[in-house]
């Protein structure tokens, strides 16, 4: 028996996309990173509305300029974050979701700056006990998709998982788009979400 043939650009198989008469070829972003269908997985809500207080918990201070930047897919849906200038906590607050400690999880988001370079750290936490942080990621003036993987058993099984990002310098301005959390070691093709997560069982 065989099921689900797929060929993609890159070194990872990516999330599976079923096709009929036409191929799926989203070339406007890194191969395997953005797709047009709503099949797949994204365990975060409002993936392109990072200022949404209902699901993204804000830190103290700072501000957002919403839908003010052209996103990697050409739409005006990216947001600009200005970090606080007078606080020791430069983290942007997390979004929480359910957690199974027997699985791997990968958090990803696109980011860029207007000029120069900035350092960005991605974080995954069990919400109540501990947090794992990525190494500092160098953000440039070009859109890049950054990702950080939590290995199986690295955090306590509190039942919840939080994701967020950390700027190391007060007053930083960084553009963001397309936050995603999936189970597995690969960031997978991006799926936009609003009020509901996407959780296809075959991913």
Report on the structure:
The chain is mostly beta strands. Helix content is about 0%, strand content about 35%. It is built from no helices and 12 strands. It has strands at about 40, 65-70, 80, 90-100, 105-110, 120-125, 130-135, 135-140, 145-150, 160-165, 175-185, 200. A 5-stranded antiparallel beta sheet has the order 2-3-11-5-9, with no helix packed on it. Strands 4, 6, 7, 8 and 10 form a 5-stranded antiparallel beta sheet that branches. Strand 2 (about 65-70) and strand 3 (about 80) form a beta hairpin. The protein starts with about 40 loop residues before the first strand and ends with a strand. Mean pLDDT is about 80; it is low at about 25-35.
- What is the spatial order of strands in the main beta sheet? 2-3-11-5-9
H/E topology pattern: EEEEEEEEEEEE
| Unreliable stretches covering 5 or more consecutive residues | 25-33
Helix content: under 10%
Number of strands: 12
User: How much beta, percentage-wise?
Assistant: 35-45%
Gap between N and C termini, in Å?
19 Å
Keyphrases for this structure?
single chain, 203 residues, 0% helix, 35% strand
């Amino acid at each position: 028996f065989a099921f689900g043939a797929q060929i993609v650009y890159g070194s990872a198989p990516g999330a599976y996309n079923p096709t009929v008469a036409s191929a799926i070829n989203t070339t406007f972003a890194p191969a395997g990173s953005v797709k047009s269908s709503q099949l797949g997985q994204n365990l975060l809500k409002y993936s392109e509305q990072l200022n949404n207080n209902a699901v993204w918990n804000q830190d103290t201070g700072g501000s957002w300029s919403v839908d003010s930047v052209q996103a990697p897919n050409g739409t005006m849906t990216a947001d600009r974050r200005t970090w606080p200038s007078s606080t020791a906590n430069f983290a942007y607050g997390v979004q929480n979701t359910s957690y199974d400690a027997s699985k791997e999880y990968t958090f990803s988001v696109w980011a860029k700056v207007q000029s120069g370079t900035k350092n960005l750290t991605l974080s995954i936490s069990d919400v109540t006990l501990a947090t794992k942080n990525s190494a500092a990621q160098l953000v440039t003036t070009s859109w890049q998709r950054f990702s950080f993987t939590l290995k199986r058993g690295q955090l306590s099984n509190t039942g919840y998982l939080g994701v967020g990002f950390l700027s190391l310098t007060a007053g930083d301005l960084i553009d963001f788009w397309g936050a995603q959390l999936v189970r597995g070691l690969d960031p997978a093709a991006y799926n936009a979400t609003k009020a509901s997560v996407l959780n296809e069982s075959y991913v």
